[in-house]
Design a protein that fits this description.
Elements: H1 11-19, H2 22-31, H3 43-56, H4 63-74, H5 80-84, H6 89-105, E1 121-132, E2 147-156, E3 161-169, E4 187-191, H7 198-206, E5 210-214, E6 222-226, H8 242-246, E7 253-263, E8 273-285, E9 290-296, H9 304-311, H10 315-327, H11 338-365, H12 373-394, H13 402-410, H14 420-433
């Protein structure tokens, strides 16, 4: 009971309301004219419904599902059309502003190797595709008669939060959404082959940053230096092309400096050529007798084995995408409105960010306890509706009247819409009159 006795009943409520105080939500809502004409709805409860509703929304993240979650939390029933009218670009902008705020303040304690503490942040750039309503022509897919979006993320491994994100159609290449600049100084970026570009690597180094990527299978840079000495008679690598010597090597690791060529950005109508030297590292995979090859500008203090292990951390972003898709329904948007798609994507990212913010609270209080990411996410999803109702009561809403909620949600919404038995009866009446 020692650990449990430290957990206050209002711990979660205090963390969430400190992350997004009601005053902050209301101030931004007024600036964005979210509540200018709709004063009946509690905009703070609506925002929390969108955030926590993603965790409890069932298989489809529909506006009707959010409406039921809002009603259960606030004991306030609204007509379907009245609730739908709230889903405007202004509400989307409110959520975007809140996400920007959260990404600046949320950080989850995370244990990194001591060597990685020399970097301001360790980050992973990646993208994921998800299907949309086929009528959403604003999001063309790679296949005809389909629509699809691509979410581009830079995941901050050091803080365990999202650093940057962009939403595009499925056809947009992930590499086009990654912008270099002085923000890279002192940061380490991990890339998959979708971001592979010698020009990009050069710009990262020129901006004082670091990178690590798999080497393309057809890459054939010229080796200019062996970065470690080997005893006995060994194959000389100096001034040879990598692909020309790979088949003859049996050493467990490769660690060389290699020269690559690339085109600079166009200036006027001209592309100037350039060359740069980067570190190429290879680790022999015993089961296949093939090398896993990497290109980087990490210093020699990172051994080839450490470089390979560090690249494996990229799996963290795959876990993040799986959480967004399988738990928060990123692939289950049932809407043909592009503005609502963008709003719901931001809401899903807010759900993820809030989940990580709560995880940070528990990890800071109990550093000796392990909280596996996916286990935490599933637990958060299971209790999200209870969290939402607890928040709503702290905002002054009464506990839900379950009988009233069930009645309002289960009854026929329109008197003109006949049930099946009533349609059959009506048909027989028509036949008799004829």
């Amino acid at each position: 009971m020692g650990v449990l006795s430290q957990l206050s009943p209002d711990l979660i409520r205090r963390r969430l309301t400190s992350l997004f105080p009601a005053e902050l939500i209301e101030d931004i809502a007024r600036e964005r004219d979210v509540v200018q004409r709709h004063r009946r709805i509690d905009v703070t409860a609506l925002v929390w419904t969108l955030i926590l509703g993603f965790a409890v929304g069932g298989e489809s993240r529909t506006i009707a599902g959010f409406q039921r979650a809002y009603a259960a939390a606030t004991n306030q029933t609204l007509s379907r059309s009245s609730f739908y009218d709230r889903f405007t670009p202004a509400l989307g902008q409110l959520l975007s502003n809140l996400l920007e705020h959260a990404l600046e303040v949320v950080a989850v304690p995370h244990t990194l190797a001591p060597q990685l503490q020399q970097f301001r942040d360790v980050m992973i750039a990646d993208a994921t595709v998800f299907r949309l309503h086929r009528l959403l022509s604003e999001f063309p897919a790679t296949h005809p008669d389909q629509s699809g979006a691509k979410l581009h993320l830079v995941h901050n491994l050091t803080k365990q939060t999202i650093e940057r994100f962009e939403l595009t159609d499925e056809r947009s290449h992930e590499s086009s959404q990654f912008h270099t600049g002085n923000w890279l100084r002192g940061r380490l970026l991990l890339f998959d082959l979708g971001f592979y570009s010698y020009r990009r690597f050069a710009l990262i180094e020129e901006n004082g940053g670091f990178f690590l990527s798999r080497l393309k299978t057809n890459a054939n840079p010229r080796i200019t230096e062996a970065r470690r000495k080997w005893r006995g008679r060994t194959i000389s690598l100096l001034d040879r092309r990598l692909q020309d010597v790979l088949g003859d090597l049996t050493r467990e690791i490769i660690d060389v400096t290699a020269e690559v060529s690339f085109k600079r950005r166009p200036y006027g109508e001209k592309h100037s050529s350039a060359t740069m030297e980067f570190r190429v590292v290879g680790v022999l995979v015993a089961d296949t007798d093939d090398y896993h090859l990497y290109i980087t500008n990490l210093p020699d203090e990172f051994t080839p084995e450490q470089v390979a292990a560090l690249y494996g951390v990229r799996w963290e972003v795959e876990v993040l995408f799986r959480e967004l898709k399988s738990l928060y329904g990123l692939e289950k948007f049932q809407t043909s409105n592009p503005a609502i798609v963008e709003l719901l994507v931001v809401a899903a990212l807010l759900t993820l960010t809030v989940s990580r913010a709560l995880l940070g609270v528990f990890q800071r209080m109990h550093l000796e306890t392990m909280f596996p990411r996916e286990r935490w996410a599933k637990t958060f999803r299971s209790f999200a509706q209870l969290i939402l109702e607890d928040l709503a009561q702290s905002f002054g809403h009464p506990p839900p009247n379950l009988a009233e909620l069930i009645f309002c949600n289960a009854r026929q919404p329109e008197k003109s819409r006949l049930l099946l038995s009533e349609r059959v009866a009506e048909a027989f009446k028509t036949e008799v009159r004829a």
